[in-house]
Amino acid sequence: MQKVTVLGSGVLGSQIAFQSAFHGKDVVVRDLDDAILVQLPARWEYLAAQYRRDLPDASEEKLAAAVARIRVTSDLADAVGDADLVIEAVPEVLDVKRDTWAAVGGVAPERTIFATNSSTLLPSAIADATGRPERFLALHFANTIWRQNTAEVMGHPGTDPACFDAVATFADEIGMVVIPVLKEQPGYVLNSLLVPFLTAASTLFVRGVADVPTIDLTWRKATGAPLGPFQIYDVIGMQTPYQLSRTSPDPEQREFAAILKRDYIDQGKLGVASGQGFYDYR
């Protein structure tokens, strides 16, 4: 699968696009708003700087070639018209994802394989909206994918095994460690471990048990982990935890979402990528 379309140019969408292009794939990035797309060259510069810092093979020539392989558009039919693989990284809202895939299914070639990068939603909750559920599955990346390079591949009961294998092969080709998830599981392997950990940290914060630096320090010193939970939130970015927390049945999680919105998102403090989050990275 050489021709890849990424739907959504947020934190993960832009990383998926850049990583794919860095490993030689031809990439189209589609977002709804041309005003967002014109900002992407700055995002490529940011990611190139991270690759230079972290990857010994990130030469200037290879980075420039990666950027040259990326094309952007706001036109859905243009974006998916020749795609071998479409990877969706739109907001973590079921109706948004289903509407997106219904539109994609109407214009993509018959050969195209569809993959969602959803962090929490099951493929079976989305598959029928595509009109070709046998070619639909999940391909989930961890943030900072050039360094935290896992790719979880998870089908639903109707996924064609050949599509599963093709997506696993693609993930390997773009430098990922492939994690086959053998049955549907909310949160896959990674988030089944990570989300309860982050939720526990946000609950301590909301209850006023300890402040952010203390919670992070406790985890790092006691376990030897390189990052505390709120440092991980900053790497993830504020939007995904906000979307998940604001619809939670737990009132403390909804309170956490309100804090994220008021004190961070509305102030432009979106995490590492924006220079500020729970911590200042400027």
TrEMBL record:
InterPro entries, sorted: 3-OHacyl-CoA_DH (IPR022694), 3-OHacyl-CoA_DH_NAD-bd (IPR006176), 3HC_DH_C (IPR006108), 6-PGluconate_DH-like_C_sf (IPR008927), 6PGD_dom2 (IPR013328), Mito_3-hydroxyacyl-CoA_DH (IPR052242), NAD(P)-bd_dom_sf (IPR036291)
Domain 3-hydroxyacyl-CoA dehydrogenase NAD binding span(s) in chain numbering: 3-184
Catalytic function, reaction form: a (3S)-3-hydroxyacyl-CoA + NAD(+) = a 3-oxoacyl-CoA + NADH + H(+)
Membrane-crossing residue ranges in chain numbering: none
Highest taxon of source: Bacteria
Annotated keywords: Fatty acid metabolism, Lipid metabolism, NAD, Oxidoreductase
Pfam families (alphabetical): 3HCDH, 3HCDH_N
Key word Secreted present: no
Domain 3-hydroxyacyl-CoA dehydrogenase C-terminal: 187-281
SUPFAM superfamilies membership: 6-phosphogluconate dehydrogenase C-terminal domain-like, NAD(P)-binding Rossmann-fold domains
Pathway assignment: Lipid metabolism; fatty acid beta-oxidation; Lipid metabolism; butanoate metabolism
UniProt cross-references to NCBIfam families, sorted A to Z: PRK08293.1
Protein name: 3-hydroxybutyryl-CoA dehydrogenase
Protein species of origin: Tersicoccus solisilvae
The organism's taxonomic lineage, starting at the top: Bacteria, Bacillati, Actinomycetota, Actinomycetes, Micrococcales
